[in-house]
Design a protein that fits this description.
The chain has 4 helices and 6 strands; from the N terminus they run H-E-E-E-E-H-E-E-H-H. It has a 6-stranded antiparallel beta sheet with strand order 1-2-3-4-6-5.
Length: about 120
Amino acid sequence: MHVESIRNYCLLKAAVTESFPFDQVTLVFKVGGKIFATLRLDKQPLAINLKCDPERSVELRDSYQSVIPGYHSNKKHWNTIFVDGELSKDLVEELIDHSYDLVLVKLSKKIKAQFCLL
């Protein structure tokens, strides 16, 4: 997968916004104001940071060299996923879906209603 296909896949999700709040090389995707993915545009191979539940994080890290612990301060269970030949397009999309769903579940009903996510 390349930058544009990952970007387009993230933007297909309901109520997703994108921005460059940190620098001009880290594209951030949010739902309801909460980050579910960051895409590093300056990394080769391409790197995307995603949330993951604890059990799945361990399983992914044990199964793929392209998945390493994310380095987000005060945020557990983020993974940095290097999108190289080791990971299939379907797996990358599944991990994006999982991260999006984890953030969506934690949004308040008020925010979900505001973004028509109920």
